[in-house]
Structure formats: structure tokens, C-alpha cells
Amino acid sequence: MKDVYMLPLGELGANCYIIPAADNKAVVIDPASATEVMIFLQSNGLTLGSIVLTHGHFDHFAGVAALKEQTGAEVLAPALDAEMLSSAAKSWADFMPRTEFRPVVPDRTFSDGEEFTASGVEFKVMAAPGHTAGSCLLFCRTLGNVIFSGDVLFRGATGRTDGYSGSRTQMKQTLHDINLIEGDYTIYCGHDEPTTLSNEKKYNPYIGAY
Q: Does the structure show a pLDDT above 60 at 210?
């Protein structure tokens, strides 16, 4: 099997990522829907071990409550966005009017600089506030030079800052910090196609400003 599978899900086409792990378990990042995730897992002989969230917007966690209910999977989320997971207003649930809002309480939270393991998959957290206070880059050490960026960074663009706990000032600092990251990484974004850090440093006008 591949190392990472991408499923654009939900009303806003948020990218859900599935990482096959040891013992036929899988880590699912940002599931906007439970149905498609369960179909994928069952079709590939996988069981859901852990759910990891990059930030607290509903288009990235709409499927979590149902997945937790069906599988008992552990839910991990950024500490600074934990409150958003139980608030329709704070999590922008109104952008998905056809999807029932179901609150989520994470089993574990993580913060800047922390390293954690989810179903055997190792991550390191880099705080990247601006889109939300708890937005982060998740460096996946198990996969090598891979970053899951949520809505912090897209191909040629960056996340908006006008929602709950968003900050243009913090986003500017985040983009500056991203520009200082050494080496190259494959970046799996919260929307649209994957990119690389070198590509974004060269062509992304928002990073180019810093």
C-alpha cells in the first residue's frame, strides 16, 4: 500500500489523509465525513486506530464524532483549538449547512514542539497560528520529509485569518517561520493538491514576502 491516501471530503472538499500503520491500523487526519473513511478502511483491510486534527474548523472534523462512535478511535487535536470542537459558531459549522454539527472532545491534545505517537505513527508539532490559534504543521517523522499543513499553507496560497481566533499578525509571523525551515518537504494541504516546501518558498507570494 501507499504511505498516504488523500480523500477530499465534505461540502468544502477538505482533504482527509489516511496513513496505514502497524497491525493493519490506520491514522486518519482531518476526516470531514465518516462514511467514505469507513468504506476506504474496510476495502483495504484496515481498522481505525487514531484520528488527528490539524485545527478546529468543522470542515476538517465533521466526521470525527461518528468515527469515534463506530470505532472507539483515539482523537488527538491542538490544545489551543480544543474549545472550537464543541462550538458550531467558533468552528464555522455554518459553512456546511447540510451537515449535522456534532461536538468532539479530544482524548489527547498537543502543543508547539511536542512529539507524539498515534497508532505507531510519529509526529512533531510546529505551532503555526494565524488561521486559528491552534493551527499547526504536523511533521510526520514516520513518513520522512512530510508535513501535514491543514489550512496554514496551500499551493500558492495560505489560510484566511478572519475566523474565530484567527490573526493576520500571527499568520505573518507563521509565514516568516515557515520560510526559515531548512530542507525540503512534501506538504499535504488541507485543500487542493499537495505541494513541496521548496515550491512554496519559490512561488508562493505570501511566503515570498517574508
A: no
Rounded to whole angstroms, how far apart are CA atoms 163 and 165?
Answer: 6
| CA distance to 78, 172, 176, 190, 208, per residue, from 158 (Å) | 19, 10, 12, 10, 12
Q: Nearest 5°: CA angle at 138, between 134 and 141? A: 155
The pTM for the full model equals 0.97
Cα distance between residue 94 and residue 192, in whole Å: 21
Mean pLDDT of the 192-201 span: 97
Residue that is written with C-alpha cell 514542539 in the block:
113
Looking at 3.30.360.10, 3.60.15.10, 1.10.510.10, 2.60.120.10, the CATH number of the domain 5-97+104-208 comes to: 3.60.15.10
Q: In which residue are the cell numbers 505551532 written?
A: 127
pLDDT at 193 over 90: yes
Q: What is the structure's pLDDT at 88?
A: 98
209 falls in which pLDDT band (50, 70, 90)?
low
Q: Which three cell numbers stand for residue 13?
A: 472538499
Residue with cell 475566523: 163
Locate 209 and state its grid cell: 514576502
The set of residues, in sequence order, having a beta carbon less than 8 Å from that of 128 and lying 6+ positions away, is 135, 136, 137, 149, 150, 152, 153, 174, 177, 178
The domain segmentation of the chain, as residue ranges, is 5-97+104-208
How many of the other CB atoms lie within 10 Å of CB of 80? Answer: 21
